[in-house]
Amino acid sequence: MPDYSTYTDEQLWYRITLDDQDAFTAVYNRYWKVLYLRARNMLSDSDLAQDIVQEVFISLWHRRQEVEVQHLKAYLFQAVRFQELKALRNLKSDANFYERLAHISKDLLLHEPMAFKELDSVLQRVLATFPEDQRTIFSMSRDEGLTYREIADRMEISIKTVEKKISRALRAIRKGMDNAFPVLLGVMAVWEKTNP
């Protein structure tokens, strides 16, 4: 058996398209850990990160005859990003939704500016639909970092009211992201094709 550790990504991909399972294993061993760490950092969930990376590799193997891969490493990272966005969409009940959205938004800003612009546009449209008091409460919580108690004291309302307003805001944002998800995937796909 050849020493695949010395092969370039292009050479390994060529071997994979010829159904070479050992070449596939070499790619898996080369990129699994870094992809896993990236997904875990984005989603703060080890099990979910592991599932995402496994899904990406399984899909790559099953689609090895169908997909055109110019840059294997870039392809794998992009596939993990897509899966992270899907996972984010599915984590509707997660209390850390906003923080995860912020992490992925930062990543999009750095790596997919068109997708970030679309994501930010969706967020701004959703925020614009909020009543003024809800927008203010949400801003005090997320932009100023105030606690619910501090917001309640400043606005002279109960903590329960603050909790309800934040909860409604997060539900509306999740719904907006659900509606924007297909558009985001499209924007990211276009960006990937024009920025190999």
Overview of the structural elements:
- There is one protein chain.
- The chain is mainly α.
- It has two domains: 1-90, RNA polymerase sigma factor, region 2, helix turn helix motif (Rna Polymerase Sigma Factor, Chain: A, Orthogonal Bundle), CATH 1.10.1740; 93-196, Winged helix-like DNA-binding domain superfamily/Winged helix DNA-binding domain (Arc Repressor Mutant, subunit A, Orthogonal Bundle), CATH 1.10.10.10.
- The protein has helices at 9-17, 21-43, 46-62, 72-90, 97-111, 113-128, 132-142, 148-155, 159-194.
- α6 runs antiparallel to α9, α7 (132-142) packs across α9 (159-194) and α8 (148-155) crosses α9.
- The model is unreliable at 186-196 (pLDDT under 50).
Key traits:
mainly alpha; 9 helices; disordered C terminus; RNA_pol_sigma70_r2
Overview in brief:
The protein has helices spanning 9-17, 21-43, 46-62, 72-90, 97-111, 113-128, 132-142, 148-155, 159-194. It has 196 residues and is mostly helical.
Blueprint of the fold:
Layout lengths: L8 H9 L3 H23 L2 H17 L9 H19 L6 H15 L1 H16 L3 H11 L5 H8 L3 H36 L2
Helix pairs in contact: 1-2, 2-3, 2-4, 3-4, 4-9, 5-6, 6-9, 7-9, 8-9
Rg, Cα atoms, Å: 21 Å
Shape annotation: elongated
Mean pLDDT: 78
CATH superfamily of the largest domain: Winged helix-like DNA-binding domain superfamily/Winged helix DNA-binding domain
Give the end-to-end Cα distance, rounded to a whole number of Å: 32 Å
Which ranges are low-confidence, i.e. pLDDT below 50, for 5 or more consecutive residues?
A: 186-196
